[in-house]
Design goal:
FAD/NAD(P)-binding domain, 3 domains, 14 helices
């Protein structure tokens, strides 16, 4: 058994863990990093990166089939599904060196390719190593949730951890779960020539503003995705190539392949949290505002901390705890400025309070301003006019923004900046956007806030009239 002492032990080499390890090591800390699976974690290998790569292939296929509006003949795309997966693998391989063991060892991090488990409040065992660290960061992420549906254990199925390895194009893909992962994969596969049925127990994209979600749902239905809402999967039967799902209301759906996209569960099973005096929760690990666990020498970040499950949240939280761990300074994580996006076409993005949340919190003080894509000249030129933005404003200060439409995931960046820095609508209106850009959508939303104050205000008109009479 090898005993190791260090300043900082990081368990998990996903987005959050890598950010902590790199930052701490480069600022002089002695860092050990444990990873028993793939460097780069879920995002690089099974999540954000491969899903966006597959969506990119699907977008090209869709463009070929819908080119006539631009004066180009429509073509039936000749989809090579295996080659599309080669594209996905190439994208992963291109990015992987940034997350590689060799790169982090170059930063001075000691990388041990083993899972870790606590054996005391101050020690973690990883293979033949026992590590005693001044501080520990748990960044073990999450895994696909596999529900106990009767019959599921007897049929083949995929999750996000296996779907990108599939080489043969599904004839008919059944997807259980209508959240972001399910909807992104539904659109990718229908555009690549598959039949797709999404079965959702409640409402598709149920965590998003219903008005925005309906735009995305309608678009997917127009493309041929069958979306069945309010349908709980009660039993599953069949075999490879012939899978049948019966819902609780007696309906039956048949397909060739099954993808589970129901949700995520925190990766805590291997950690032996009890040995360290760390309290779990239903969704992960209990942490305070500074992301400390009930063991004050141990922090938890990312999916395993039980909050918002996004790669960029883990990266943000890594920055928060670095301040506390390395410099002993107080630091607290916040969520009011954290955006998220669903990368369907059109995209859906949000930051801050939704309209419903803002109405509940602020009541009559709330103003909701809107701007539609079909008034944006660049959107018209590119025939991307489906969608709109709405900004929730209280006393001139935005408290939330929701966007559905072309490049919504890019546009939401500005509103995250606004909320993070407590800017006002006047500061957004003062921004100058190049013409013609999709980015003008943001500025025009700010303009929509001020327009009635300037153009529908009798006092403004009287003042202008007086000034005009007195000007030489």
């Amino acid at each position: 058994m090898t005993r190791i002492k260090c300043d900082l032990l990081v368990i998990g080499a996903g987005s959050g863990g890598l950010s902590v390890a790199a930052g701490a090591s480069q600022m002089g800390a002695d860092v050990v990093l444990l990873e028993g699976h793939e460097m780069g974690g879920d995002c690089l290998n099974f999540g954000c990166v491969p899903s966006k790569a597959l969506l990119a292939s699907a977008k090209v296929a869709h463009s070929q089939a819908h080119a006539s509006a631009f004066g180009i003949a429509d073509q039936v795309p000749q989809v090579d599904y295996a080659a599309a997966k080669d594209h996905v693998r190439n994208v992963i391989d291109t990015i992987a060196p940034m997350d590689s063991q060799e790169r982090f060892e170059g930063f001075g991090v000691r990388v041990i390719r083993e899972y870790g488990q606590f054996i005391s409040p101050t020690e973690v065992q990883a293979g033949e190593n026992v590590i005693a660290a001044r501080r520990v960061v748990i960044a073990t992420g999450s895994s696909p949730l596999v529900p106990p549906i009767p019959g599921l254990d007897a049929v083949p199925f995929d999750t996000n951890e296996t779907i990108f390895d599939l080489r043969d194009k599904p004839d008919h893909l059944l997807i259980i779960g209508g959240g972001p992962i399910g909807m992104e994969m539904a659109q990718a596969h229908v555009r690549l020539g598959c039949k797709v049925t999404v079965i959702e127990a409640a409402r598709a994209l149920g965590k998003d503003d219903p008005e925005l979600a309906e735009v995305v749902i309608g678009s997917l239905r127009d493309e041929g995705v069958q979306i069945v809402e309010g349908a709980m999967a009660a039993s599953i039967a069949g075999s490879a190539g012939d899978i049948r799902i019966e819902t609780s209301d007696g309906r039956e759906f048949a397909g060739s392949h099954l993808l589970l996209a129901i949700g995520r569960k925190a990766n805590t099973d291997r950690l032996n949290l009890a040995a360290a005096g760390i309290e779990p929760t239903r969704t992960g690990i209990q942490v305070d505002a500074g992301l400390r666990t009930t063991n004050k020498k141990v922090y938890a970040i990312g999916d395993v901390a039980g909050g918002l499950q996004f790669t960029h949240v883990a990266g943000y939280q890594a920055g928060v705890i670095i301040r506390s761990i390395l410099f002993g300074l107080p630091a607290k994580a916040s969520t009011h400025h954290i955006p998220w996006a669903t990368y369907t076409d059109p995209e859906l993005a949000h930051v801050g309070l939704s309209e419903a949340e803002a109405r509940q919190k602020h009541g009559a003080r709330l103003e909701v301003v809107r701007f539609d894509y079909h008034h944006n000249d660049r959107a018209i030129a590119e025939r991307k006019t489906k969608g709109f933005i709405k900004v929730m404003v209280v006393k001139g200060r935005p408290v939330g923004a929701s966007i559905v439409g072309h490049q919504a995931g890019e546009l939401i960046n500005l509103w995250s900046l606004v909320l993070a820095n407590k800017l006002k609508m006047g500061q957004v209106a003062a921004m100058v956007s190049p013409y013609p850009t999709i980015g003008e959508v943001n500025k025009r939303a700010a303009g929509a806030y001020f327009s009635p104050r300037l153009f529908d205000n009798p006092l403004v008109k009287r003042v202008v009239g007086l000034v005009q009479r007195w000007l030489p």
